[in-house]
Amino acid sequence: MMHEFKPTIVWFQAITCNGNTHSLLSSNSNRFELFLNSFNLIYHPSLTINNSLEYILENQKEIDFLLVEGSISSNEFIFSISNDSSKNLLEKLALRSKYIIAVGSCASFGGIHAKFTQNDDICGIKEALENNNLQTLIHPIINLSGCPVHPEWIFQTLFSLKTFGKIDLDEVGRPKELYSTLAHHGCTRNEYFEWKVEGNFGQKEGCLFYNQGCRGPMTHSSCNKILWNEISSKTRVGMPCIGCTETDFPRNNMLETKKNMGIPQEVPLGISKRAYLSISGVAKTFKIDRLHKKLME
């Protein structure tokens, strides 16, 4: 009886809060079991015990999927494991990996660590490898941005690559099948958005775009289509989207909408500011009693 080939996975943690690992462990139990049965997770610092990273570096000649969690630095004192820097370790692992997947926004674009440490040395894995002129990669780096990344996005990407050998990416390296729509799509508050009925943080009803800083209309994400725990999302429980899948995350003052003369500085993707202002002006002339009543309940 022939056994199905199980591609190897190495999960490398660099400068991270472990949030993406926690997200993975919060996935659907059946999907997680299928993942473990379909891939050979030979190393994860929190989930495996058979191999150390040193063993992987010394003995694993080929790695099918290298998953990287956390931002990268060449400073070994910021990240110290095996008496080496995260950048040097990443380069060693990358040279023997078929596919490299950045898991989360820190690995994809530098994220919180690059933003708040104000250290130019800290960056995402693509920038770290490009700075070293590493041109021997078989496939382009895949960015699964998010803070944390949705666990189902990890599974879908891995199974797509295992089955088809490639995946279509957008201009910043994210899979189109997961990031081609906006967090706004599928949001249960869209009618409030259309009629400019604003809610407040934590409320079940009302839009969170005009005052609360919601980035749903300009954030590439499938959070409201592929629900967290198959149940909900940030916006469904009254939390504004903070745009964690975008290259500029995190921004300053994330929970407020920046305005000029009462008008949002940034308008939803795909519409000009002039057209948006015209539509908004018309919408505000109407008062939809049904929506306002639900907001007050």
TrEMBL record:
Compartments, as annotated in UniProt: Cell envelope
One cellular component term from this protein's GO annotations in UniProt: [Ni-Fe] hydrogenase complex
Pfam families: NiFe_hyd_SSU_C, Oxidored_q6
InterPro entries: Cytochrome-c3_hydrogenase_C, NADH_UbQ_OxRdtase-like_20kDa, NiFe-Hase_small_C_sf, NiFe_Hase_small_N_sf, NiFe_hydrogenase_ssu
Residues binding [4Fe-4S] cluster 1: C17, C106, C147
GO terms, biological process: anaerobic respiration
Residue span(s) of domain Cytochrome-c3 hydrogenase C-terminal: 179-253
Gene3D superfamilies: Cytochrome-c3 hydrogenase, C-terminal domain, NADH:ubiquinone oxidoreductase-like, 20kDa subunit
Keyword Oxidoreductase: yes
Chief subcellular location: other
All residue ranges annotated as the NADH:ubiquinone oxidoreductase-like 20kDa subunit domain in the record: 17-160
Residues binding [3Fe-4S] cluster: C223, C241, C244
Binding, [4Fe-4S] cluster 2: H184, C187, C207, C214
GO terms, molecular function: 3 iron, 4 sulfur cluster binding; 4 iron, 4 sulfur cluster binding; electron transfer activity; ferredoxin hydrogenase activity; metal ion binding
Top-level taxon of the source organism: Bacteria
Keywords: 3Fe-4S, 4Fe-4S, Iron, Iron-sulfur, Metal-binding, Oxidoreductase, Signal
Oligomer and partners: Heterodimer of a large and a small subunit.
Assigned protein family: Belongs to the [NiFe]/[NiFeSe] hydrogenase small subunit family.
Protein name according to UniProt: [Ni-Fe] hydrogenase, small subunit
Organism whose genome encodes this protein: Arcobacter defluvii
